[in-house]
Specification:
By secondary structure, this protein is mainly alpha-helical. It has 18 helices and no strands.
Length: 425
């Protein structure tokens, strides 16, 4: 994934505005879901062009990215003002409908390409063209009679199952709020506490630095829900630590990558897939994270077994110079309060979005129990970090929403189910 460009003061202010707007929309406001998802797309599209510019040449960047930013905001506003008029016309497109829908789809494809690579945009393009171009020529069970471009654009842009449908709703509610919570936890110092806790708990074991990496990544993943953020935040400490202990560099990098990937499996904050699962299966998020605990622990246990085997193979010995566990807990117990508040609210029956909002407030309050409380500058930094981390995910999920819409629109999902059922006997 390309690395984002650093934001200037205006960019940081815009990122903070996005975070504040989403926090308000999720915690206090009641907004129409389609329009809320549209503005989610428009705002993050502008942030994406700031983070992932089209060119290093200044005038090209202003021309291309400025056009994309204005067009994305215009498409979001048009969705809000033109929806009622479209239905009054009997869902008959006029020229502006064609332009707005086409521009919105092209923008999300381009920004998903910039932020996450070619794979998802290409798959999305294949899915969209399957509906109108090559579906009728596919033989066998996956043959599809085809729909018009107008129907495709209507269902993709204005439809409740399209790019601003359930997947986008998951993006601007659950996913963003938990990414924002993770950013606040990291800024508050919880990340440093987690690494210190892992070193104190596992530092004296054989292969201790490797076990520290696993525990640190598992605990950090439980508050960020992101493999990339997990690797960046813990890897800079754990990989050199493992190398100094005697682990081969490639093995150290592999352990960190495997452990950080597992962070997405570790409740209570998991990857976007958990929220998509909760939405589509109508199983409560609390139930999903409850049944995810054991598989996540088994995953990390397996990685730990490989670390112990490698440590024994190369003859590593435990390190005696490790801080005791109790002083670490005593110094940083307040960092556990936001996680306790989140878990308690979920168990009490509050929604994940509301629980995350309260946990953010608890994070700020709990930081004042430490020597380095979160002041206004830290809060602004956490809000900006959350929005920046969310930008690629937002474009990715909106793209995925287009694919999911095609699967439902064409009946491909039912076809897959019937094929699997026939194979199963």
């Amino acid at each position: 994934m390309p690395r984002p460009q650093p934001l200037g003061r205006l960019g940081i202010a815009f990122a903070v505005t996005i975070a504040a707007a989403h926090l308000w929309a999720n915690a206090f406001a009641t907004l129409p879901e389609l329009q809320a998802a549209g503005f989610h797309f428009g705002l993050f599209a502008v942030l994406c062009v700031l983070l992932f510019p089209a060119s290093k040449t200044q005038w090209l960047r202003i021309a291309i990215d400025g056009t994309i930013a204005v067009a994305a905001l215009a498409a979001a506003i048009y969705l809000h003002v033109a929806e009622d008029a479209l239905y009054e016309r009997g869902v008959e497109f006029i020229q502006s409908d064609w332009v707005a829908a086409s521009v919105a789809i092209l923008i999300v494809l381009e920004l998903a390409r910039r932020t996450t690579g070619w794979t998802v945009p290409v798959l999305t393009g294949l899915a969209l063209t399957y509906v109108v171009l090559w579906g009728p020529v596919v033989p066998g069970a996956f043959s599809f009679a085809g729909l018009s471009w107008e129907t495709l654009l209507f269902r993709s842009y204005f439809g409740t199952d399209g790019m601003f449908g359930p997947i986008a709703r998951i993006s601007w509610t659950f996913v963003f709020m938990f990414i924002l919570l993770g950013a606040f936890l990291v800024r508050s110092g919880a990340g440093d506490f987690i690494l210190a806790l892992a070193r104190a708990a596992a530092g004296r074991m054989t292969g201790g630095p490797g076990i520290v990496a696993i525990l640190g990544s598992g605990l950090m993943g439980s508050i960020t829900g992101s493999a990339v953020a997990n690797t960046v935040s813990t890897g800079v400490i754990t990989i050199p630590l493992m190398k100094r202990a005697g682990f081969p560099p490639k093995f150290a990098g592999g352990v960190e990558a495997a452990a950080s990937t597992g962070g997405q499996l570790m409740p209570p904050v998991m990857g976007a897939g958990a929220f998509v699962m909760a939405s589509f299966t109508q199983i409560s998020y609390l139930e999903i994270i409850a049944v995810s605990v054991l598989p996540a622990l088994l995953y990390f246990f397996t990685v730990g077994v490989f670390v112990r085997i490698e440590a024994a193979h190369i003859g590593l010995v435990p390190s005696p110079d490790v801080e005791p566990l109790w002083p670490v807990i005593k110094a940083g117990w307040h960092f556990l309060l936001p996680i306790a508040a989140l878990a308690g609210l979920l168990i009490a029956g509050f929604t994940p979005v509301y629980s995350a909002a309260i946990a953010i407030a608890v994070t700020v309050a709990a930081s004042w129990l430490s020597p380095n409380p979160m002041r206004l500058r830290d809060i602004i930094g956490a809000a900006s970090d959350g929005a920046v981390s969310m930008a690629p995910t937002a474009m990715l999920l909106i793209c995925v929403g287009l694919i999911v819409n095609v699967v439902g629109m064409t009946g491909v999902g039912n076809t897959f189910s019937l094929i699997l059922s026939s194979w199963a006997g």
